[in-house]
Structure formats: C-alpha cells, structure tokens
Amino acid sequence: QVQLVESGGGLVQAGGSLRLSCAASGRTFSSYNMGWFRQAPGKEREFVAAISRGGGNTYYADSVKGRFTISRDNAKNTVYLQMNSLKPEDTAVYYCAADVRGGRFVREYDYWGQGTQVTVSS
Question: What is Dmax (Cα atoms) for the chain?
Fold first, then answer.
C-alpha cells in the first residue's frame, strides 16, 4: 500500500509556471506507475500525465503536451509535474495516483492523493 501527498499548488497568472510534487510513503514506490489527473468544478476527473516505474516512458494528454513535464525521483519517493505556460483552463484540483497498472485512465489507479488546487488567472 502507498500513501500520497501532493503539494505545490497555488494561484498563478496565465503564462506562469508551477511545479507540483507528490510524496509517496512506503518502500515500494519504484514498483508503481504514477499519474497526474485533474478535476475542474462540474467536470469529470481527467488524465494529465503518467510515468512508468523507472521513468523511461512518459505520457501526456494532448491539452498539456509541450507545456507540462512529468518526472520522478525514486530515491526520494516523489513524482513531479512541471507546468509551464499555464492557461485559465488548467484551473483544477490536481491529483497524483499510483498503481502497478497505472496508465491513462482513472480506473487503472487504486491509490490517490488528496489533491492540490491550481488556479490560473487571466
């Protein structure tokens, strides 16, 4: 089992940057694929980015490709989401997730953090 805690959210102007972090408990972090998802008010939770166990493979939603970068540090049990060129439509609660199956879909993840709010003003 793994527990996840996100941090790094906040209020930023359009065009700005934020870096989210997700710290995982346990000694098996490197066994999990990791993902970032987001949920805006009134909308379903959607895929943002995912990274494989060793960090060699990354996947992005089309809406963030070229602006966001997912990375991980298995020695620190942490996954990151660097968000650049932020847009108002990126405003949402951002969640990190872990699972040995993890991919692009919510149903592929059993473990979730509590979320961190990102607000992008125009």
Answer: 41
